[in-house]
Automatic annotation (TrEMBL), chains A, B:
<dbReference type="Pfam" id="PF00356">
    <property type="entry name" value="LacI"/>
</dbReference>
<keyword id="KW-0804">Transcription</keyword>
<dbReference type="InterPro" id="IPR010982">
    <property type="entry name" value="Lambda_DNA-bd_dom_sf"/>
</dbReference>
<dbReference type="InterPro" id="IPR000843">
    <property type="entry name" value="HTH_LacI"/>
</dbReference>
<dbReference type="Pfam" id="PF00532">
    <property type="entry name" value="Peripla_BP_1"/>
</dbReference>
<feature type="domain" description="HTH lacI-type">
    <location>
        <begin position="7"/>
        <end position="61"/>
    </location>
</feature>
<dbReference type="InterPro" id="IPR001761">
    <property type="entry name" value="Peripla_BP/Lac1_sug-bd_dom"/>
</dbReference>
<keyword id="KW-0238">DNA-binding</keyword>
<dbReference type="InterPro" id="IPR028082">
    <property type="entry name" value="Peripla_BP_I"/>
</dbReference>
<keyword id="KW-0805">Transcription regulation</keyword>
<protein>
    <submittedName>
        <fullName>LacI family transcriptional regulator</fullName>
    </submittedName>
</protein>
Amino acid sequence: MSIRQRATLDDVARLAHVSPKTVSRVFSQRHLVSPATAEAVLAAAKRLKFRPNTVARNLRGGASNTVGFVIGELLNPFYSTVATGLERVLADNGKTLIVASTDDTAEGEERVADTLLAQRVAALLMVPVGEDQSYLEGERQLGCPVISIDRPARNLVADSVVLENRTGAFSATRSLMARGHRKIAYICNPAAVYTQAERIQGYREAIASGGRAEPTPWERLLDDPAANPAAVVADLLAMDDAPTAIIAGNNRMCIGALQVLDSLEHPPALIGFDDFDTADILGVSVVSHDAVDMGRQAAELALERIMDPTGFTRQIIIPTKLIHRGSGEHPPYA
Amino acid sequence: MSIRQRATLDDVARLAHVSPKTVSRVFSQRHLVSPATAEAVLAAAKRLKFRPNTVARNLRGGASNTVGFVIGELLNPFYSTVATGLERVLADNGKTLIVASTDDTAEGEERVADTLLAQRVAALLMVPVGEDQSYLEGERQLGCPVISIDRPARNLVADSVVLENRTGAFSATRSLMARGHRKIAYICNPAAVYTQAERIQGYREAIASGGRAEPTPWERLLDDPAANPAAVVADLLAMDDAPTAIIAGNNRMCIGALQVLDSLEHPPALIGFDDFDTADILGVSVVSHDAVDMGRQAAELALERIMDPTGFTRQIIIPTKLIHRGSGEHPPYA
DNA sequence: ACAGTCCATGACAACGCTGTCTAAATCTGT
DNA sequence: ACAGATTTAGACAGCGTTGTCATGGACTGT
């Protein structure tokens, strides 16, 4: 249980009878050291269980090998999937990923961003929650690139990686229309976020392309986190003029809808947004996307900006794809 | 696009006409500074957009506010759920979480552990993959606590947080037996990991308690990552003496089993291990656990060890709970 | 044999911050 | 009004590393 002292460059240097700088070179620019010396240094380092201190290294070099990811909640599979993609690319480039979650509040976002910036992350990746990211503008000017994921940052010059939401919703809606559906519901909660706004727009564009100009009476754009998805769907189906098809704007609504539809003999068609584990078993058609790839692209964008913080910002759009599994392909039972 | 210089303590000190140390105090021991001075310093800091550098602070203090988590793959919901619990507790205690994944290989594990240790994490949490973690013994003696999650570390003195695997499997098996099942299968892949070994033992103990001494003919303990879960289940049910109930040792096997059982008129009873998103909709009974809590407890253990690296190591056991949802409660159709 | 190169190594300061010690100014009680 | 305690602030060094520059010896070509 004895706690020994951690060996430093100087300790190794002393043992190997060389200068600290030579030891430093062995661990970072080996080619500048003669093989014999290097070997002696390595032997000494091994004996002392020496391990270079990245933190000190970065302090001196002014660099940083960490990248911060500000996330709503790691529990949400979407975030953790994106984080997977990030981590893979970053690890391949010698960077480590620091994850911090915001509890999905704007204050939380600012607080954790602050913590990460104090750690001098080389770049800040985030899924913005708040309405305004202008508080990061200073840091960006100080050379810390900000990459916004899933939704664009507001009031801030930042690169972003987003989904092809509108097209995804458009094609889901069109697919239902092509099968004869005219009364197509769109349900989501919360609705007041970028992704839903985009999806709703895609949905409406598709409906409009079929001749209907005004918003449909089957839209349920909620903003109450406590709303019960199943109840919303049940209400919808109890209407006089009930929809024959439902598009669920996100996973939670989709699973809520499933709970209701399960017990129906002639359930309405259902298309979800965002794929989930058992969707194929359940035969649920969804508008899917590759969240790992989203993370990957975001990380690559970050690495690029770390190299060159100047230059125009970019927006990368990740494609979505309608996957037919049955639930979205049956015609209206009317 | 101009990149300004980042302000340091000294810059702020100069602007506020005080010594750097005073500025330092304002940001860490405010009560030792007179209110007037503090205010002046804060004003100067604000004007310069100064942000204390945690890295430099830690370098001097010899401490660290980061904790590393070595993980197989963030994509796996179990890992990301544990990470959630970790992150919550760590954030509450002013620490940030660095996540690094190993691709589930022993070499990967050693490599990323090395990277994290070079970052001087205050503690190393890990889900061990390799057969031997003795390579960490040196670091532990150097004062970096190691906490092993989900499985105990091998050849290393380390605290650990594991599930009540054996009891979970035992009670699942007994529950099936109580409903009249005598031919109970246990399927898992891979089988050569601690958690499965424990679960299998619990299963066998339960079977033995019913009178059967030797291993059952319905065990399918695979170790081929490429094995198709559905095919294994189909084979099992095609036996002359087919089982009337199945216990799936993990999520993947459980979902595989579902795919087969779905099409059967009289499916065998099924109990899975580890809960999943749509298990309630699908009516799948499972032995469940609270992975967030696992993370939480691991983090608390880590914090405790950071405070006091000496002292006896502990093993925390997280309870498992059998959740009845239907699939595991029907009697044998024989 | 001699200037001009090249190579291996080292001395020194600095990265941004804080622990430790010291000094001066202010306050306390009598 | 004075010793002693307390408050406030600064000087200095050092955390573990590396950038920069300097040094000395071994090479090259003529």
